[in-house]
Design a protein that fits this description.
single chain, about 190 residues, mainly alpha, Serine Threonine Protein Phosphatase 5, Tetratricopeptide repeat
Length: about 190
């Protein structure tokens, strides 16, 4: 209801970037509801608005989100293409945090498409950028995924080391996800 009213207001104002942000928020809601097709449609609308407005940061964030939705829908080549485009924009803008988040999306798609060795490199890059930015929670999430990828490759010592690092990061934050990651190291 509120997002619809905001969208109408931005339309009346002719504010395309504002419309793009509303569509991004609608996509987030749909993604959390487990509706990736609807999220993808709203993010494609957001991308069109950001491109029309010349809003590069919004465009890059949305390309990453579209990549995420496509990866969850099994459209890995399209997901990779979106992530590569997003990374190029984020590097040009100097947004290393956004770049780290996009490397995570790229890694997820690489892993799910049967390219775990490529996923490892992407997760390592994502973790390094997120560490540099000081985003300890996302660094922990990415490091856990790195451990999962090592485990899928049968590299159990490296998987355990990654999970222990993620556990340490989450414990330092007092985050409840620490229990699930700790269970992986104990298994």
């Amino acid at each position: 209801m509120h997002l619809g009213a905001a969208l109408d207001a931005y339309r009346r104002l002719g504010d395309r970037a504002g419309q793009g942000f509303v569509y991004r928020n609608l996509a987030r809601v749909s993604a959390r509801q487990g509706l990736p097709e609807r999220a993808l449609a709203d993010d494609r609308r957001a991308l069109a608005m950001f491109e029309a407005a010349g809003h590069d940061h919004g465009r890059a964030q949305t390309l990453n989100a579209i990549g995420w939705h496509l990866a969850h829908l099994g459209e890995h080549e399209q997901a990779v293409a979106c992530c590569v485009r997003a990374i190029a924009v984020l590097q040009r803008l100097g947004d290393r945090h956004g770049e780290g988040l996009t490397w995570d999306t790229l890694a997820y798609s690489r892993h799910r498409s049967g390219r775990p060795e490529q996923a490892l490199r992407c997760y390592e890059r994502a973790a390094a950028l997120l560490r540099e930015h000081g985003d300890r929670y996302m660094e922990a999430v990415v490091t856990e995924h790195l451990g999962d990828t090592y485990a899928a490759l049968g590299r159990h010592c490296e998987a355990r080391a990654a999970w222990l690092r993620a556990t340490g990061l989450l414990a330092a934050l007092g985050h409840p996800d620490v229990r699930a990651v700790r269970a992986k190291t104990d298994a």
